[in-house]
Amino acid sequence: MTAKSKKINFLNAFRTVGSHPSTQSVLKTANSTRDYLYKSLDTGKKDAPHKTIVSAAQKYITPIHQLLVACRVQPENARLDERLVFEWSTGIEDKERSFQSEAIMYELVMAIATEAMATAGVGTDECTNGEFAAACRCFKKASGIFDYLSSTQLPQWLSKGGKIDNDALPAEAKVAVCEAFKVLMCGIAQQMAVATLLMKDGTPNWSLLAKLSLGISEQFKEFVSIMRSKASFTKTRIDPEFFTLMTFQIELQHSLSFYFHARHFWEKELEYGLGIAMMNKAISMTKTRDTPTSRGLPEIKSKSPLKSVEKDLNGVKSHMRIVLQAWEKDNSIVYFDKVPLDLPRDKVLSEGTQMMKPDPYELDVPEPVALIMPDSDNPPPPPNTNDDAELARQLQEQLNAE
């Protein structure tokens, strides 16, 4: 997502009513931090570090929220000398589109959504570096921000602004989409927790891992369900390959749940036949599905983004087969335990464990700055013409400090 409207000058927009020194300070901060956020997002072909974007968004949220509160509590003085037109492009939809609004609430919502997406980006970076516990914390934070948007900030805006056309806002500024992404981020956080458990020394708790993996599958299913039922219009504008990935994740996590449960029955419960039956079920769920609606993993085509995980997937399948062959050999020589044709209902998990919850997120209620209408003896100050140079200087200082 990108902040498109570069030329925003809060000092000039609030020139008449923003003459109080404390108000001037907040307006200057809003100018410099917005420009910093704009520069962080608009890096051309080079991707800015996600941590830089998180920091830039957080710095901008404070003054823009303070201005919003000031306009709310002093509506009679909330008058502009220049229009403020905020323009953002969506970062979720397949094709980039720009959306404009003059509402300060829109600007605040998009700044918060930027923090959420960038926080998830930091989590992705931590995962890539093998720091799964740190990644888990990031995704929980991102989930909390999306939860705040869907349950507090966006409903608050809609209650004051009335009905808004479904196509008038970016995907990130829609209640249902934020609700869905809250669930998605919790599911990914739980994936990171499972990875953390598997990295520890010693024998894992196979039963717990089975429940957690099924919980991940359920959360991903819930994400897709919310998008289909509450945000179907937006769903059509998201890259379909993304939902192919979600189908892949749902089925793979369910398969891993059976794999972990099989290990539990073989190693802990000493129910060798049941362990073999569970492992057979896990392997069957990793097969490529015959049709788009049948069970199994989606086909990995030559140009599919899933191509990047095909080697790892084949490794998982090979490992499962090797374990199964070893168990079948041992059972035929040593244990002679009957392998059930159908898995007993009371032995199959009916629901998973959803351990991860969104981290609470809220905005501090700021002290509103004064918006004062000048009297005839004190005319408004002239427009600030040197502000761009000051902004450039402040921006350079901030970039150098990163």
Topology of helices and strands:
Blueprint: E1 2-3, H1 10-13, H2 21-41, H3 50-73, E2 86-89, E3 98-101, H4 104-128, H5 132-161, H6 175-199, H7 206-230, H8 232-235, H9 240-267, H10 272-284, H11 310-335, H12 387-401
Antiparallel strand pairs: 1-2, 2-3
Helix pairs in contact: 2-3, 2-12, 3-4, 4-5, 5-6, 6-7, 7-9, 9-10, 10-11
Overall description:
This protein is mostly helical and 402 residues long. The chain has helices at residues 10-13, 21-41, 50-73, 104-128, 132-161, 175-199, 206-230, 232-235, 240-267, 272-284, 310-335, 387-401; strands at 2-3, 86-89, 98-101. The protein has a 3-stranded antiparallel sheet. A hairpin with an 8-residue loop joins strand 2 and strand 3. Helix 2 (21-41) packs across helix 12 and helix 7 runs antiparallel to helix 9 (240-267). The longest helix has 30 residues, at 132-161. It is elongated and about 100 Å long. The chain starts with a strand and ends with a helix. The mean pLDDT is 91.
Low-confidence runs (pLDDT<50, min 5 residues)?
none
- What percentage of amino acids are in beta strands? under 5%
How many helices does DSSP assign?
12
State the end-to-end distance. 21 Å
Helix content: 55-70%
Principal-axis shape: elongated
